[in-house]
Amino acid sequence: MRRDATPRDDREAGAHLPAPGRYATGRYATGRYATGRSATGRSARSKPARRPHTLAPLPLLLLLTVLTVGCAPSVERKPGLPPADTIKAAQQQLTDTCLTRKGLAPPRPGDRPPSAAEQQRVARALFGTGRTELSLTLPTGHAVRAHTDGCLASAQRTLYGDQRRWFRVSTVVNNLKPEAAFRKQPLTEIRDRHRGDLAEWRRLRTRALINAKAHLQSESRRAAAR
Protein backbone atom coordinates (compact mmCIF):
# COMPACT_ATOMS: atom_id res chain seq x y z
CA MET A 1 0.00 0.00 0.00
CA ARG A 2 1.35 3.43 -0.89
CA ARG A 3 2.30 5.39 2.19
CA ASP A 4 1.03 8.88 2.71
CA ALA A 5 3.70 11.44 1.87
CA THR A 6 5.28 13.83 4.32
CA PRO A 7 3.15 17.00 4.60
CA ARG A 8 4.49 19.72 2.32
CA ASP A 9 3.61 22.28 4.95
CA ASP A 10 1.85 22.37 8.28
CA ARG A 11 -1.56 22.86 6.65
CA GLU A 12 -1.52 19.26 5.40
CA ALA A 13 -0.87 17.76 8.81
CA GLY A 14 -3.90 16.55 10.65
CA ALA A 15 -6.08 16.85 7.56
CA HIS A 16 -8.72 14.46 8.79
CA LEU A 17 -11.78 16.55 9.53
CA PRO A 18 -13.23 19.82 8.63
CA ALA A 19 -9.26 19.26 11.73
CA PRO A 20 -9.08 16.63 13.36
CA GLY A 21 -5.68 17.85 13.84
CA ARG A 22 -5.52 21.16 14.32
CA TYR A 23 -6.61 20.96 17.81
CA ALA A 24 -8.52 23.84 19.28
CA THR A 25 -9.07 24.45 22.93
CA GLY A 26 -11.88 24.74 25.42
CA ARG A 27 -15.30 23.27 24.72
CA TYR A 28 -14.64 22.71 21.03
CA ALA A 29 -11.29 20.95 21.31
CA THR A 30 -10.96 18.55 18.41
CA GLY A 31 -9.07 17.98 15.27
CA ARG A 32 -8.46 20.30 12.40
CA TYR A 33 -12.01 21.32 11.72
CA ALA A 34 -13.15 22.38 15.16
CA THR A 35 -12.64 25.62 16.94
CA GLY A 36 -13.12 27.12 20.32
CA ARG A 37 -11.65 29.46 22.85
CA SER A 38 -7.90 29.09 22.73
CA ALA A 39 -6.16 28.98 26.08
CA THR A 40 -2.78 30.53 25.51
CA GLY A 41 0.17 30.70 27.81
CA ARG A 42 2.68 33.51 28.07
CA SER A 43 5.96 33.12 26.26
CA ALA A 44 9.31 34.31 27.46
CA ARG A 45 9.23 37.08 24.85
CA SER A 46 6.77 39.92 24.94
CA LYS A 47 5.44 39.33 21.41
CA PRO A 48 5.21 35.73 20.19
CA ALA A 49 5.76 35.53 16.45
CA ARG A 50 2.53 33.79 15.55
CA ARG A 51 -0.36 32.07 17.24
CA PRO A 52 -0.66 28.31 16.87
CA HIS A 53 -2.74 27.03 13.98
CA THR A 54 -6.14 26.92 15.62
CA LEU A 55 -9.13 28.41 13.88
CA ALA A 56 -10.79 31.55 15.13
CA PRO A 57 -14.00 31.03 17.12
CA LEU A 58 -17.07 30.60 14.95
CA PRO A 59 -20.76 30.87 15.78
CA LEU A 60 -21.88 27.44 16.93
CA LEU A 61 -24.38 26.93 14.11
CA LEU A 62 -21.76 27.84 11.50
CA LEU A 63 -19.27 25.52 13.19
CA LEU A 64 -21.65 22.59 13.10
CA THR A 65 -22.46 23.31 9.46
CA VAL A 66 -18.75 23.22 8.57
CA LEU A 67 -18.55 19.73 10.06
CA THR A 68 -20.94 18.37 7.45
CA VAL A 69 -18.84 19.31 4.43
CA GLY A 70 -17.57 16.19 2.69
CA CYS A 71 -20.30 13.89 3.99
CA ALA A 72 -18.94 10.36 3.85
CA PRO A 73 -21.60 8.51 1.84
CA SER A 74 -21.27 10.80 -1.19
CA VAL A 75 -17.49 11.21 -0.96
CA GLU A 76 -16.76 7.50 -0.68
CA ARG A 77 -18.06 6.71 -4.16
CA LYS A 78 -15.53 8.99 -5.85
CA PRO A 79 -12.54 7.03 -7.21
CA GLY A 80 -9.02 8.02 -6.26
CA LEU A 81 -10.04 9.91 -3.13
CA PRO A 82 -7.02 11.62 -1.52
CA PRO A 83 -5.91 10.15 1.82
CA ALA A 84 -6.95 13.23 3.79
CA ASP A 85 -10.47 13.13 2.33
CA THR A 86 -10.76 9.39 2.94
CA ILE A 87 -9.93 9.86 6.62
CA LYS A 88 -12.25 12.85 6.80
CA ALA A 89 -15.13 10.89 5.26
CA ALA A 90 -14.71 7.97 7.67
CA GLN A 91 -14.49 10.28 10.66
CA GLN A 92 -17.66 12.02 9.50
CA GLN A 93 -19.51 8.71 9.40
CA LEU A 94 -18.21 7.73 12.83
CA THR A 95 -19.25 11.00 14.46
CA ASP A 96 -22.66 10.91 12.76
CA THR A 97 -23.28 7.38 14.04
CA CYS A 98 -22.20 8.38 17.54
CA LEU A 99 -24.53 11.39 17.61
CA THR A 100 -27.43 9.31 16.31
CA ARG A 101 -26.92 6.74 19.06
CA LYS A 102 -27.17 9.56 21.59
CA GLY A 103 -30.52 10.57 20.13
CA LEU A 104 -29.12 13.67 18.40
CA ALA A 105 -29.45 14.66 14.74
CA PRO A 106 -26.09 15.16 12.97
CA PRO A 107 -26.00 18.65 11.41
CA ARG A 108 -26.52 18.86 7.66
CA PRO A 109 -26.24 21.78 5.21
CA GLY A 110 -29.64 23.16 4.35
CA ASP A 111 -31.34 21.73 7.44
CA ARG A 112 -33.58 23.99 9.46
CA PRO A 113 -31.46 25.53 12.23
CA PRO A 114 -32.09 23.77 15.55
CA SER A 115 -32.79 25.63 18.76
CA ALA A 116 -29.92 27.09 20.74
CA ALA A 117 -30.39 24.40 23.38
CA GLU A 118 -30.19 21.65 20.75
CA GLN A 119 -27.06 23.20 19.22
CA GLN A 120 -25.46 23.16 22.65
CA ARG A 121 -26.37 19.50 23.22
CA VAL A 122 -24.87 18.51 19.86
CA ALA A 123 -21.69 20.49 20.52
CA ARG A 124 -21.23 18.92 23.96
CA ALA A 125 -21.82 15.41 22.61
CA LEU A 126 -19.48 15.97 19.67
CA PHE A 127 -16.58 17.79 21.29
CA GLY A 128 -16.78 16.70 24.93
CA THR A 129 -17.43 18.51 28.17
CA GLY A 130 -15.77 19.46 31.43
CA ARG A 131 -12.07 19.89 32.00
CA THR A 132 -9.84 19.30 28.97
CA GLU A 133 -7.77 16.18 29.57
CA LEU A 134 -5.15 16.76 26.86
CA SER A 135 -2.82 19.74 26.88
CA LEU A 136 0.40 20.72 25.12
CA THR A 137 2.38 23.95 25.51
CA LEU A 138 4.12 24.95 22.28
CA PRO A 139 7.59 26.56 22.06
CA THR A 140 5.81 29.87 21.36
CA GLY A 141 4.27 29.69 24.83
CA HIS A 142 0.74 28.99 23.63
CA ALA A 143 -1.17 26.09 25.18
CA VAL A 144 -3.42 23.81 23.10
CA ARG A 145 -6.02 21.63 24.81
CA ALA A 146 -8.51 18.93 23.84
CA HIS A 147 -11.08 16.57 25.35
CA THR A 148 -10.90 12.78 25.46
CA ASP A 149 -14.66 12.33 25.67
CA GLY A 150 -17.22 13.09 22.99
CA CYS A 151 -17.96 11.58 19.59
CA LEU A 152 -14.98 13.18 17.87
CA ALA A 153 -12.50 11.78 20.39
CA SER A 154 -14.07 8.34 19.97
CA ALA A 155 -13.76 8.57 16.18
CA GLN A 156 -10.11 9.57 16.45
CA ARG A 157 -9.37 6.58 18.68
CA THR A 158 -11.05 4.30 16.13
CA LEU A 159 -8.99 5.69 13.26
CA TYR A 160 -5.62 6.54 14.83
CA GLY A 161 -5.60 4.00 17.63
CA ASP A 162 -4.10 6.44 20.14
CA GLN A 163 -5.88 9.78 20.46
CA ARG A 164 -3.39 11.18 22.97
CA ARG A 165 -0.42 10.49 20.72
CA TRP A 166 -2.23 11.85 17.66
CA PHE A 167 -3.14 14.99 19.59
CA ARG A 168 0.48 15.61 20.52
CA VAL A 169 2.18 14.94 17.18
CA SER A 170 -0.51 16.62 15.05
CA THR A 171 -0.41 19.72 17.27
CA VAL A 172 3.38 19.90 16.95
CA VAL A 173 3.39 19.32 13.18
CA ASN A 174 0.54 21.77 12.62
CA ASN A 175 2.56 24.51 14.31
CA LEU A 176 5.99 24.10 12.73
CA LYS A 177 5.74 27.39 10.82
CA PRO A 178 4.81 29.45 13.91
CA GLU A 179 7.70 27.81 15.77
CA ALA A 180 10.11 28.69 12.95
CA ALA A 181 8.93 32.30 13.01
CA PHE A 182 9.17 32.44 16.81
CA ARG A 183 12.70 31.00 16.86
CA LYS A 184 13.72 33.01 13.77
CA GLN A 185 15.05 29.83 12.16
CA PRO A 186 14.46 28.29 8.71
CA LEU A 187 11.53 25.90 8.51
CA THR A 188 13.89 23.17 7.29
CA GLU A 189 15.80 23.35 10.59
CA ILE A 190 12.58 23.15 12.59
CA ARG A 191 11.46 20.14 10.54
CA ASP A 192 14.78 18.45 11.19
CA ARG A 193 14.40 19.11 14.92
CA HIS A 194 10.97 17.44 14.85
CA ARG A 195 11.81 14.60 12.45
CA GLY A 196 10.69 12.10 15.11
CA ASP A 197 7.29 13.81 15.37
CA LEU A 198 6.96 13.89 11.58
CA ALA A 199 7.75 10.18 11.38
CA GLU A 200 5.13 9.44 14.05
CA TRP A 201 2.63 11.68 12.24
CA ARG A 202 3.13 9.64 9.05
CA ARG A 203 2.81 6.36 10.95
CA LEU A 204 -0.47 7.35 12.60
CA ARG A 205 -1.83 8.74 9.33
CA THR A 206 -1.03 5.45 7.60
CA ARG A 207 -2.94 3.57 10.29
CA ALA A 208 -5.86 6.00 10.05
CA LEU A 209 -6.01 5.62 6.26
CA ILE A 210 -6.15 1.81 6.53
CA ASN A 211 -8.87 1.97 9.18
CA ALA A 212 -10.80 4.63 7.27
CA LYS A 213 -10.88 2.56 4.07
CA ALA A 214 -11.99 -0.52 6.00
CA HIS A 215 -14.76 1.44 7.72
CA LEU A 216 -16.04 3.04 4.51
CA GLN A 217 -16.07 -0.31 2.70
CA SER A 218 -17.93 -1.93 5.59
CA GLU A 219 -20.52 0.85 5.67
CA SER A 220 -20.92 0.66 1.89
CA ARG A 221 -21.63 -3.09 2.03
CA ARG A 222 -24.04 -2.58 4.91
CA ALA A 223 -25.92 0.13 3.01
CA ALA A 224 -26.12 -2.05 -0.12
CA ALA A 225 -27.61 -4.92 1.89
CA ARG A 226 -30.47 -2.80 3.24
Detailed description of the structure:
With 226 residues, this protein is mainly alpha-helical. The protein has one domain. The protein is 49% helix and 4% strand. It has nine helices and two strands, in the order ααααββααααα. It has helices spanning 60-66, 72-76, 83-101, 116-127, 151-160, 163-174, 176-183, 187-193, 195-225; strands at 134-137, 143-146. Strands 1-2 form a two-stranded antiparallel sheet. α3 crosses α5 and α7 packs across α8. The protein is globular and about 55 Å long. The model is unreliable at 1-5, 9-48 and 54-78 (pLDDT under 50).
Order of helices and strands: HHHHEEHHHHH
Structural class: mainly alpha
Could you tell me how far the N terminus lies from the C terminus, measured between alpha carbons in angstroms? 31 Å
Number of separate structural domains: 1
What is the makeup of the main sheet?
2 strands, antiparallel
Q: What number is the mean pLDDT?
A: 76
User: What's the alpha carbon Rg, rounded to whole Å?
Assistant: 17 Å
Extended strand count: 2
Taken as a percent bin, the fraction of beta residues is: under 5%
List strands and helices in order, with pairings:
Elements: H1 60-66, H2 72-76, H3 83-101, H4 116-127, E1 134-137, E2 143-146, H5 151-160, H6 163-174, H7 176-183, H8 187-193, H9 195-225
Antiparallel strand pairs: 1-2
Helix pairs in contact: 3-5, 3-9, 5-9, 6-9, 7-8
